[in-house]
Amino acid sequence: MRYDDPTMHDSPPPPGPTNPYAAPETPADKASVVETAAHDLTRDEVRAFVGRESSYYWRSWQRAAAGSLRAGFSWPGFFLSFAWMFYRKMYREALIGFGILFGLGIVEGLVESATGTNLNALSRAENVVIAVTIGMLGNGLYLRRARRVIADARAQEPDSERREALLRARGGISWLGLVIAFALLVGWSAAWSVLATMAPG
Q: Is the pLDDT of residue 14 over 60?
């Protein structure tokens, strides 16, 4: 005997939980998707976060694979390195880079002091490697920061206008950061010169 329960007929599954960080839904046509979403970020959010150069970063970030730090080559990152990071308010990333540079400098100083070997050529090579690395990964690191800041802004401010104002305050550029970066570089160069004069031989 077959029991036909009408409540057991196939039916669409209930909708899943809403993702509060998801970008607003857009029409399914390709052109619309390209114009409105890049890695779950809307163009208005990117414009508010980045500022004047938003079109360049919008295009670069669209080309990046999900989860990848490769988002095009950053020429400002290549030429200005940590100064560019401070300028774009990537303070954590810049300080990590400075920490690595400082550690390498200490090791090189100890090696020079112990062996009397001149490592200036190695230092120049390290500077080139750092510049190329930041050039290759800079846009991706900036995208990662944008996603983090925009996600926080979405959670804190549901109103789109106030959220964009919050993104403009937390994003954009920092001339003070640029000054601090150059001050750190000058201080590091001066400290390195003092260590070099104290080295034996």
A: no
52-65 average pLDDT score: 88
CA distance 146 to 74: 16
Distance, CA of 69 to CA of 58 (rounded, Å): 15
Q: Look up tokens 């976060």; give the residue.
A: 49
b/e map 117-149, b = 16+ CB within 10 Å: eebeeeeeebeeebbeebbbbbbbbbbbbbbeb
The answer to whether the predicted template modeling score (pTM) of the entire model surpasses 0.85 is no
User: What is the tens place of the pLDDT at every residue in 120-156?
Assistant: 788 888 889 999 999 999 999 999 999 999 999 999 9
The SS3 assignment for 138 reads helix
Between CA 35 and CA 85 the distance in angstroms is: 27
| Phi, psi torsion values for 94, nearest 5 degrees | -65, -40
The alpha carbon of residue 132 and the mean position of all alpha carbons in its chain are separated, in whole angstroms, by 16
- Which residue from 21, 37, 41 is spatially nearest to 142, judged by alpha carbons? 41
CB 154 within 8 A of CB 41: no
The least confident of 36-40, 54-58, 108-112, 194-198 is: 36-40
